[in-house]
Amino acid sequence: MFLRVSLLSLLFLCFKTQAQEIACKFTVEGKVFDIVSQEAVPFVTVQIEGTTKGIAANENGEFKIENICTDEFNLVFTHIGYKRAVHHHDVYHEPPIIYLAADEQLLESIVVEGKVEVGDFQSNTVSSISSEEFHALESESFGDVVGSLSGINTLTTGQNIVKPVIHGVHSNRVLIINNGVRHEFQNWGAEHAPEIDPSLVDNLEVIKGAATVRYGPDALGGVILINPPPLELSSHLHGEVRLTGKSNGKSGESTIKLSKGFNRLSLMGETSWLRQGDLKAPDYNLTNTGKKEISYAGGIRYHLTSMDFEAYYSHFNQELGILRGAVNGNNEDVQNAIENEPPPDTGPFSYTINNPRQTVVHDLFKLKGVWTGKNQSASFQYGFQNNDRQEFDVRRGTNNELPNIDLKLKTHSLDLDWNHPTLGKWSGVVGIQNQFQDNDNIPGTNTPLFIPNYAQYRLGVFMIESIEIEANTYEVGLRYDYQFSSISGRQPDNTLFRNELDFQNVTATIGLKRAISSSTSFRSNLGTAWRPPNVSELYSFGRHQASIEYGLWRYQLDESGTVTTNQVLSELERPVDSEAGYKWINTLTVSKSKTDFELTGYINYINNFIFTRPAGITSTVRGAFPFFLYEQGNAIFWGLDWTSRHSINSLISADLRASYLWSQQTNGNLFVGQPPANTSLSLKVKPNISVFDQSEFRLNFNYTFKQFQAPRVIAIADIAIAQENGINIFDRENSTFDILKEPNGYLLVDFVWNSSIGKMEWNVGVKNLFNTSYRSYTNRLRYFADEMGRNFSLSLSYRL
Amino acid sequence: MKTCCYRHFIWLILILGCTTNDPAPENAEEIITIVTLNFDAPGGALPLVFEAVDPDGDGPQDLVIEDEIKLAPETQYVLTIDLLNSLNGDSISEEVAEEADEHMFFFSWTDGIFSSPSGSGNVNNGSSDVDYNDQDVNGLPLGLSTTWFTTNSGSGTFRILLKHQPGSKTGDSDATIGETDLDLTWNIAVE
Question: Which pLDDT score, from 0 to 100, does residue A449 have?
């Protein structure tokens, strides 16, 4: 996969369309690859449809057809043993790269043209999931799919809420670009997962460097780019019907995808449905961990010579349950829940979803136009997103039917980009990004507002330029951002407070990509990133389960260290600076015939890092609680990622992945729940079994180490004793703490058999083969229950 | 409130459209701010009232238990518990009574203060040795009203624990089941 990205970048350097405006003077050139091996396919026949004009590619897979009379035409690629491919080309577009699929493969042949999104960042480290691997992961949650890449982990709340973590940072420090639009949701909450259904996604890439310059604030850790299936012209009706069943949770999922391309028009539609009951740990049920999901999407593209218009709509609707045994009213309840195994309120299997639960809806509408001219292109894109989030806790009386968090977030965005013609040796892109956002609390929760209402306007202007000098490509980027927000909230006694805030920032990036030899390349990127503090960090107030937090502007500390919260502050009393990140990331990539490997090293320094620290214990009628205050400091993250692939012979290959992260605040404070070191080995065997068209057996060993960088432990009993004796245990030492020791390391073994006959394909798999009981350090419910036990899955798909 | 826009004339028009709606007021219905213990003596002794107050609910201000419980020796008392949300005037004890089948009070005390019930309460062991005067629809005890006989003298602590046990309140459900709505410990003396 890395190979493909680097090959693409190389190819863009090698081929340039020779467009001439004299009749029959148009030219097209390109190169043909095998989609699986990524090696050039020699002597492929290339023909212009409806004419006798054609040519055979040379032994390197390269072709060039000259003296073409029209500026738009269909190219037909045929070769023995491969599926035919048709590509509609106009001479203003980038040279096509053709990936042919062998007859016996289920994959379709594809053609790629133009710079892919990541092309804007040649010096940055990009990881992607190959289409084969993606197919096997489609029925997982979005976070779990992203988490399968090296250097990416997940922050989970039980099994249903999964957030991606890039190099140790998450939530508002990771940006998701869904179909070219910044995915906007209530990202501040650790228990708010992105509303994306991976079964409708076609490709996924992760930029591991700070890519704020291109994509805007928040991208301190990195950027996740996801795209639906491309809208291709001149393609036959194709698609897929897929059914998946899993034993753990007795879940069923069905997905249908269809697309058809005409001469100028292309259409795409897809839908997915999922139902899951209570999951099961090896020794007991995980009561109330069911899930329901419905999602659908549709797209249309209209093509004119040098113009393309695209409209897209997607809808996501999810209801999910949270482990019943994780609910608690005070610290003693937490202690009971920790000590009890199985967790409290464990019941028999059920599909019913009770409180605590979440319902989320996300809609995206997008309109895009692209103009392609001579050596340049420009695009505009309008996006509208609607996100509804309701969270239900276990409450008394009729309040049990009411959400305690009920938020509606509407986002409009308008982006303009221009890939300018090369100026001397410089090529690049400039753009303007506008965003307007409106967040409202829906009345009727009967609980104090956790975050206030706000309206927010953002403007960003950026420029990224690159220059090639011999084997080196140098990149520079610069961006200016401005953000204005209007905030209105209420204190618990319903006193209104308002504020207006503005933030602005300049970010920059420099990078180098160097082709050391034909098989080895090196990338280095130094990027700055920023993000303004979000409303929850400034204004959050109150108790959520057994912890109480006060945002940066919701508390005052007097000289004796006493905390009061009767006043709402502003930037005048307590200035809060934006977080500013500096991430330097380096990657060495070696691709040889039998072995590929990639080694990445990074360091990320974040200034004004916003975090919570324990500040004291407050007693309420429910008992004693520790409370946490938001503060700012500085933090350092560094680490290494390794990915390699080794072909032992034509039948057997092995993939090895490992990642290590070190993170700490500069005052010595450690973080709770950072991903521990992790390594995985995947053995693949592809035997030739005559009954099947193709067959692959995969055995995965995944070992997660114990987190040796875990903070100190203060048991709940010690908190209670301190409170009884009137001692503030956080007076002298206010570093972060955990209430339980970090879990031990664990080995998980998975097995998958993937095979096909004709257009039928199936995946038979088992996860956690040995039904190992374990707890993950990055699961926020690790105190209460084990992770999921053995899970058999069967997935059948039929390709049209 | 400060005006932000003087430096940004270009964006003035956009920003004028950028003001948010005020959120509607919300009544925090579940907070208990005042807990009142009414000790009434059917035998004619002086009725006694004790309060615990937490004016800011989940705020950092500590709960204050106003005074020590002082009971007369060798006297029968009926204890009724009132729970109030003074932020909006709602009676939480009425809500608890309406949902008696999901709630239960547990008590523990220093041995020797009461002659009946004897022992030290049902917080740490499930056996019900508290004299409940009220029951839910399933015939299980609730505890908004309980009966106590004092000894001739003694002192120590008196703890009241209210558990919310939706779907899990049974004859066997003890004080470790469910979520805690209330957990208060008073100093107590019989003299």
Answer: 87
